[in-house]
Amino acid sequence: MSTTEHYDVVIIGAGMSGLAAGIRLAHFGKNVCIFERHNAAGGLNSFYSFAGRKYDVGLHAMTNYVPAGVKGTPLGKLLRQLRIKHDELDLCSQKQSRIAIPGTDLSFSNDFALLENQVAEKFPGEVDGFRRLIEKIKTFDDVALDIKEVSARKVIAEYITEPLLVEMLLCPLMFYGSAREQDMDFSQFVIMAKAIFLEGFARPHEGVRRVIRILLEKYRQAGGKRKMKCGVRQIIREGNRAGRLLLDNGDEITADHVISSIGSVETEKLYQEEASIEAKKEMTAGVLSFVETITVFDQLPEDFGWGDETIVFFNDSETFTYACPQEQVDPRSGVICFPNNFEYGDRDLAEGFLRVTCLANYDQWATLPEKAYTEAKTKWFDQVVDSACRFLPKPQQDLNSLTVATDMFTPRTIHKFTGHLNGAVYGAPHKIKNGRTSLENLYLCGTDQGFLGIVGSMLSGISMANFHILQARK
Amino acid sequence: MTKDECKKLVLDIIADIAPDEDLSNVKSDVKLRDQLELDSMDFLDIVMELRKQHSIEVPEDQYEQLASLDSCAEYLTPKFNALV
After folding, report:
1. Residues A422-472: tens digit of each pLDDT
2. For chain B, N or C: smaller number of CB within 10 Å?
C-alpha cells in the first residue's frame, strides 16, 4: 500500500496570495506545498508570451506604491514580511492619471495634493467635506479582521453632497477592486482609496512577471514545494476537518492546515453539496467581470499625440453604472492604461501599448460557440477602443497603420485561468476577513478574504498564514 | 557569548527582517520601536527568527524583554550561553 503524502500546510492556488502565504510558512520551517491547476503561477495577475511578445494580464499598475523609506504602509509591511528589498521590485512611479466624465476631469498622481487641488478647483463647495472624508479614511482601521460591513455610499454622503463628485471618486475605486455592484463595503472603499489616492500607482519595468519571479524564488529558497498543473479536486471532510485532499491526478494527500486562495464559494464547492452552498446568502458568487483589449503600436503613445497619462478611468455620463451588463460588454465606462507612461527614465518600453478594460457579462460569453465567440471578440474590440478614444486626445496618425498586434481577453478567459465563478475578477461580494470556513483547519486567503490589489492579495496570504498558523497557540 | 555579540546578533535579525532600515545608529538603551518602524508583526518575526536560527524560545509573556538592544542582551545572553 502506498503511503499518503502529508504536509504541515497545503495551499491551493499559486497566485500572489498563495505564494505570499507559502513564503511565510516555508521560511518558518513548515513543510508546505502549493498546488496549482495551471502551468503558470500568478493566478489573476499573470503573464504570457504570444508571437514573441510579452503581455501582462490583470495588473495595469501596482497600487499602494510608496517610495522606499516611507513607513507604516502596506507595501512596506509586505516587503518586510517577505524579506524583499524595495529595489528588487524595480517599481517605476506613474506619471499622471485621470478620472474623466464629459465636461469634468479630475487628475491625480502619486502626490495627493494634485487630487485635492483638482477637487478644490472643480468642486469648490465640496472640498472641505472631501478633506474630512480623507481624514476619516486615513484613520480608519481597514485591515481589522472583525469589521462590520457598511455601505460606502452612505458614509460618503455624510461628507460629500454633489453626486457627480461621489461618482467620480467611486469610479476608479470600484473598477480596481469592487466585487459588489453599484456600491462598496466602506472598509473596501477605504482600502482602495488609500491604495490609489493616498499612496499611488507604480509598475515594475518588466511588468508583473518581475513580482511573480521574485515570489517564486523566495518560496523556493525558503524550501517551499509546489506542484503545477495539479489542482485540488476535492476536500474530503473528516468530521469538522479537511481530512484528505484529492488531487487532479488522482492522488490523495493529507495536511494539518489547508489555505485556499481560490475563492470562498469555489472552496466550499470542494467539500459541500451545491444546494447547501446556495442556501447561504453570504456564499453568493460575484458577477463582475471584464473584457480587456490590448493594442500594440510600433510607436509610443506619447509620440503620436496621446500624451503621457498613465491610467484614465472614464464614464460617458454623470451617473456611473458599476454592474454586470445585460449585453456582452458595457462600453460606456472603462479603464484605459498606457503601460508606457511610467517613470522609466531612459528605459522606455520598445513598443507602445494601449489596454482598455470594460465591464462584461460572463453568461453572455460563456456559452458562445467558438465561431460566434471569435466574432464577438472582434466586434467588441473595436467598440471598446472607440469608446476609450472619446476620452483621449485625437491621435496624430491613423491607429490602424500604427498597430502591430492586438489581443483581447473576456470573462471566459478569466474563468478558464482563475477558476473564479462567473469570471468574477474581484470574487464574491461578501468578504470573509478572518478567513475562516466551516472546517476548522481550512482557511481562505486572497480575493475573498478581502484585502485588495496585488499588495493586498499578498498581505492577505501573509496575514492568514500568520494569524491561523504561525501565531496560533498550540 | 558576550552581551555585545548578542546585540550584534539581534541587529542581524532585524537587518534580515527590515532590509531597508538604516541600523547604523541604533541606540542600545532606547526602545527599538521608538527608533525603528517595527510593529507587532515584526516583533513576532524577531521571536520566530530566534527560534529558527538559534533555537531560542521566547514565551509570549516575555516579549517585552526584547524592547531595546540592552534589554535583549540582558535577557538573551544567558539563554545563548545555556545552549552551549
Report:
1. 999 999 999 999 999 999 999 999 999 988 889 999 999 999 999 999 987
2. C
| A312: β partners | A98, A336
The conformation of residue A423, written as its DSSP 8-state character, comes to G
B interface test, pick of A75, A78, A80, A466 with most B CB neighbours within 10 Å = A80
- Angle CA A381–A384–A390, to nearest 5: 140
Q: H helices then E strands: how many in chain B?
A: 4, 0
Q: From CA B72, how far away is CA B3, in angstroms rounded?
A: 9
Topology of domain B3-83 in CATH is 1.10.1200
Angle at A298 between CA A292 and CA A299, to 5 degrees: 95
Measured distance CA(A365)–CA(A327) in Å, rounded: 10
Q: Which residues contact B77 (CB under 8 A, 6 or more apart)?
A: B1, B2, B3, B6
pTM for this predicted structure? 0.93
A29 has a chain B CB within 8 A of its CB = yes
Residues of A in contact with B16 (CB under 8 A): 83
* Per-domain residue ranges of chain B: 3-83
